[in-house]
Amino acid sequence: MLYFQKNALKFGESTALLSGSQSHTYTTLIEHSEKVASVLLENESDLNQSPVAYMVEPGLDYVVSQWGIWLAGGIAVPVALAHPLESIKYILHDTGAKTFICSAAYKSLLKDFCEASGIRLLVWGEMPALHQRSLPTIDAERGAMILYTSGTTSLPKGVLSTHHGIESQIKSLVEAWKYTAQDHTLCVLPLHHIHGIINVISATLYVGGKVEFLAQFSAEAIFELFKKGDLNVFMAVPTIYFKLIAYLETRSEQERMELKKYMQAFRLMISGSAALPVSVMEKWEALSGQRLLERYGMTEIGMAISNPYEGERRAGHVGMPLPMVQVRLANEENMEVVGEPGEIQVKGPTVFKEYWGKQQATEEAFTSDGWFKTGDVAEVQDHYYRILGRNSTDIIKSGGYKLSALEIEEVLRTHPNVDDCSVVGLPDEEWGEVVAAAVVLKVETSSEDLNTYMRSKMPAYRVPRKYVFLSELPRNAMGKVTKNDLKPLFIK
Questions:
Q1: Structural domains in the chain, sorted by start
Q2: pTM (2 decimals)?
């Protein structure tokens, strides 16, 4: 019996999920999941690690779809609700999934393609009412879930994790962040990424806590839920905190103080999936009384590094290795380095098994002695890791220097007229690369003014040489700026 099934039986009639006016117990979760598993199996005794895609709205149907796939012996493949049909086709072709579960809202998008491709489409609200049947015994080393990378530099790759790997990720977080059955967390994140699936839903349900869903993002709706006084854990990406701060700044002083009273009562607030600007961390702390816990992870490794639950949460740093996770910094020859920047490499049971159907890519992602190469460059200061950026997008090689785009962004954000920014390296014959900045302004400001300001704050070789002004930065579903979309904007 897998961990989620054991735990659901143990927590029984305790509330597991809340959505609007509806609440569902752990017993309801497991009963519905077993029925979905029976529908998926049809006349088979075991799906034997066949991928099953699902495009399901957050809430009971989402969790039951995932658990039902697992109970039937399949591999769960969550699909983003915002994906266009072409992106969905890519995932279905890449995984070879022959079954697709969807919410009724997506039936019209998927029906014709699934019929033409011989894919069985199961629609929530139209599923056959089959009786429960005997389910297969699932080994923890089986494949459990395929999540797709963002594909910013190449086609997205399917990241396969086992049941053992997922439970290891959960156990590591439960220990580090002190989850308990008293936790009541709000899910506002997309559920085709590890942040929402593992950190918010899976870890909370692992200990018998409650997960509440918000049908649609709204800063006002989030704060209304905060005011009820039931929530005590909140996890989001920096762009969400940015929007919540913007909302708070429009409220009266009395309203802000009232909301701060409720937020101060939370036991934990976390930021992740993209770098947290120091300015956002400081503003949020002033408005909420909560010092955000920033952590570092990725699809292939789950969470690997975190600021401490108890102890200093250092701004601009992602903390120290989590339980069960080995971390080292390595040079370009994959040799460990100490006292200097290097690529973050990770080892342990939380690391994924393979890129689905891509043996060569899998082999290239690991060193010969089994360390996963993240592609992220960091340095260690007093045991705290500090991310300098990605090898491919955030480390700019200019005039013999290796510059961190993230460091330059932090300084640029301190300009009083800058609302947000992103720094990239542009190819240059003389310098190799030159620093360029895309900027969102609060009020009109010239590039000359920004240049003068930056030269007063850092050496000239780090100062952006080109600027472009935008109304907003291009971002993916998790709030990360898609830097490859920025580079063409500088070409005149």
A1: 3-138 (3.40.50.980), 184-390 (3.40.50.12780), 395-490 (3.30.300.30)
A2: 0.85
